[in-house]
Design goal:
5-stranded antiparallel beta sheet; single chain; 16% strand; 43% helix; two-stranded antiparallel ribbon; disordered N terminus; Beta-lactamase; disordered C terminus; 9 strands; globular; alpha+beta; 10 helices
Length: 281
């Protein structure tokens, strides 16, 4: 039994995706990001992944941060997975409101009441957390409803309802590659995320005008985040997760990191392959 446990542990170790930049250019970009972040008063974590080449950069990417409203990406994914399997419909009504309306209010306007209505209909935080585990998404945990999270004493270092930037990008990657939801549901979710009305001073703030961005923000007292996809001029998408707590320059830190990532990934020609991604940390 001990041999089997050791063998499985080794398999899990080698199954992890690379969490550090894998080429000299991206190592340099990672160092640039690290220098940028080190000069901020906020505690910032960043992970970015080119969806085509698999190249990535990480600065504190395996450190857990609160998710706040970025958890709504996971809630939307589970609901749409249920739609894909015929168990639910976007035309279903929940307390007199269509699921489609609730999902769009949750993702576009970050409506907390709509979020908790959808989450309750799905079975609550534990059901969502278990589903993520079943899909191989680790490093991300869901413990409370939004109402419970906001009512509890605030602790920005609480491991409950937290995710690492790496884990959040892994979730985004599985959504994008239609591994959690069907392509049509993926396209619908990306369209909804492209209409996000919150956090205009974060990922989108310093990008060239008209840059396509599909994203979801999160906000608490002393905490700011933004996660999603940035499209490059050649059509490549970069999945990003940026979490910041403490300090007084959180939105600016996210905006500057997003522009650094955009410029850095745009400057590199991509390779014509798509590497497999396994379970994240």
């Amino acid at each position: 039994m001990r041999f089997i446990a050791i063998f499985l542990s080794l398999l899990a170790l080698f199954a992890q995706p690379v969490s550090a930049a894998s080429s000299p250019y991206f190592q340099s970009l990672e160092q640039q990001l690290s220098s940028l972040i080190s000069n901020k008063s906020a505690d910032v974590g960043v992970y970015a992944l080119d969806m085509k080449s698999g190249e990535n950069v990480s600065v504190r990417g395996d450190v857990a941060f609160p998710m706040a409203s970025t958890v709504k990406v996971a809630i939307a994914a589970l609901y749409l997975a249920q739609v894909d399997h015929g168990r639910r419909s976007l035309d279903d009504t929940i307390s007199g409101v269509s699921a489609r309306s609730l999902l769009e209010r949750m993702m576009i306007h970050s409506d907390n009441r709509a979020t908790d209505m959808l989450l309750a209909d799905l079975g609550g935080p534990r059901v969502l957390d278990n589903w993520l585990r079943e899909q191989g998404v680790t490093g991300l945990r869901v413990d409370r409803t939004i109402a419970q999270l906001l009512a509890d004493k605030r602790d920005l270092w609480d491991r409950r309802d937290s995710a690492t930037p790496h884990a959040m990008v892994y979730l985004l990657t599985k959504i994008y590659r239609a591994e959690l939801i069907k392509p049509e549901s993926r396209d619908y979710l990306l369209d909804v995320m492209a209409r996000c009305q919150t956090g205009k001073n974060r990922i989108k703030a310093l990008l060239p005008f008209g840059t396509p961005v599909e994203h979801k923000t999160g906000t608490l007292n002393g905490y700011t985040s933004d996660v999603g996809f940035i499209s490059l001029p050649d059509g490549r998408r970069v999945a990003v997760a940026m979490f910041a707590r403490g300090g007084n320059d959180r939105p600016r830190a996210i905006a500057e990191a997003a522009r650094t990532i955009y410029d850095g990934f745009r400057s590199v020609l991509t390779w014509n392959f798509t590497p497999a991604l396994s379970t994240t940390r």
